[in-house]
Amino acid sequence: MTKLKLGIHTGFATNRFPEPEVWSRIVGEELGLKYVQFAIDLLNPFLPKIVIDREVKKIKKYARKYNIKIDTAFGSTFSRINHLMHPDALQRKVWFNWIKRWFKISADLEVRGCGLHFGIISVEDFANERRRKFLIEEAISSWRKLARFGAKLGLEFLLFEPMSIQREVPCTIDSTKKLLERVNENSLPIPIRLCLDVDHRNSASSDPRDGDPYAWLRELAQFAPVIHMKQSAKDNTGHHWPFTKEYNKRGIITPPKVIEAINTSGAKEVVLLFEISHRERYPIESRVIDDLKESVEYWRKYIKE
What we know:
The protein is α/β, with parallel strands linked by helices and 305 residues long. It has 10 helices and 10 strands.
């Protein structure tokens, strides 16, 4: 049986609750969660060092106050850009150094591991087979360099997230397995692992496994210390729904099936992280906290920690 824990990705706080004292209180007191995946949008590496150092101290202070653990750190809305696969070589270099600063921030927050998506190829480059292969190979090399850098920072692992379309690498179960093997070959000092997402699946694939969130869990959860959770539509249109009564009637993600699939994978321990988004519209804006509370209550029937 897999040891399962509940936590939350702090993307819910972006532009609503950016203050560490506020989002920490919401997570620890209002939601009753302990495990946090810190989102890059709350502390961009482009900020001056003096600002970053001050915010890191505040985050750690309020994490202690509200008895929460900053367990991992990961990308969010802002970081969903080309970075390591950008068409321009100079910009790839800039983003590589930006990611290194992100990893340093993560290490200062004393996380186990951190990451973001593997890389996104532009439409023009994806259509060019030579460019596509070159950018993938370069990104593999960059991630291996980042693993060596992360090891020096004291991180236990790095993370990348499978996506849903071909130019957002990888986007199928088999290609994820192959990429994971390639990027980890020749004994890296720390492993590169997955941050799975129950809503990141490829319904356009000719292999029906790729459109099935439970197939992803059964085959890959053993490589995923953390998994993003949200209610998901059958048509795979990426709504980031909460687990409320309204959306549970429409969605396909259920706790018993998720738990069964993860247990089948052979995973030893996994943190399930709510990654729920609300549009900045009324009346949705006023439901954010209540929807998160209801989502936690729904899952607490099955997972206590």
